[in-house]
Specification:
Transmembrane protein; membrane; about 0% strand; transmembrane helix; transmembrane; mainly alpha; about 100 residues
């Protein structure tokens, strides 16, 4: 059961939806930044490359990129990070 935001007329319901969507967007962007750090570290990128990538993500956040605009790049980034993590888990084993 969801709300049809295109047809909703109640300003309070729309305001609550905006607040929830903004919070979720901030949470997802924070997660993308965490995964980006992990991915770059797994790829052996240096600290400068990591900082450049994070500054780019921060710039997107500051200019108010909509969730719709960043959904595909975020999905690709998360998918790549997960694939690299899964590959690393299978290839590298701790030995004692």
């Amino acid at each position: 059961m969801g709300i049809d935001l295109d047809r909703e007329k109640d300003p309070e319901v729309l305001r609550q939806a905006v607040v929830l969507l903004e919070a979720e967007s901030r949470r997802l962007l924070a997660r993308v930044m965490e995964l980006t750090k992990a991915l770059l570290a797994a790829q052996g990128k240096d600290r400068i490359a990591l900082q450049v990538e994070l500054e780019g993500l921060q710039a997107q956040l500051e200019k108010g990129a909509t969730l719709k605009a960043v959904a595909t790049p975020c999905g690709v980034l998360v998918g790549t990070a997960l694939a690299c993590f899964a590959l690393a888990v299978r290839l590298f084993r701790w030995t004692s």
